[in-house]
Amino acid sequence: MLIEKNYDLYICPGIYQEILQGIRDDTVFGEIKNILMSFPTAQAGTMEASDCAAGLYRTLRKKNIIIKNPLTCLTAAYAILDDMYLFHRNRDFLDIASAGKLKLFK
């Protein structure tokens, strides 16, 4: 859908890992890895993104909103730091967006 509409798409390291670790077939793994490697990556540094993710998690926790998967905050941090819209299918991103600067693709 997004590719067909010619949007610029980026990938962050955590999403790259999450997609690849779920693939059981070696041939499919190689094919998907090649496809993912063709996308540009988010530019924020890993420590900068980790610091931002920790801040997001802490801010939400103070509001009694618990994000179950730490990778969710890290993915949001990359989008925030690189000023990108995030395409998602995860309710936790709605909570993160409600608390700050995360822009969600609609």
What does this structure look like?
The chain has helices at residues 13-21, 26-37, 46-62, 70-81, 91-98, and strands spanning 85-86, 103-104. With 106 residues, it is mainly α. Strands 1-2 form a two-stranded parallel ribbon. The protein starts with 12 loop residues before the first helix and ends with a strand. The mean pLDDT is 90.
Low-confidence stretches: none
Class computed from helices, strands and strand pairing: mainly alpha
Shape: globular
Major beta sheet, strand line-up: 1-2
Mean pLDDT: 90
Gyration radius, in Å: 14 Å
Alpha-carbon distance between the termini?
Answer: 12 Å
**What's the story with the biggest beta sheet?**
2 strands, parallel
Please give the domain count.
1
CATH class: Alpha Beta
The helix/strand order is HHHHEHE
Q: What's the count of strands?
A: 2
What is the CATH superfamily label?
5'-nuclease
Beta-strand residue percentage: under 5%
Assigned CATH architecture: 3-Layer(aba) Sandwich
- Percent helix, as a range, is 40-55%
Annotated CATH topology: Rossmann fold
Give the number of helices.
5
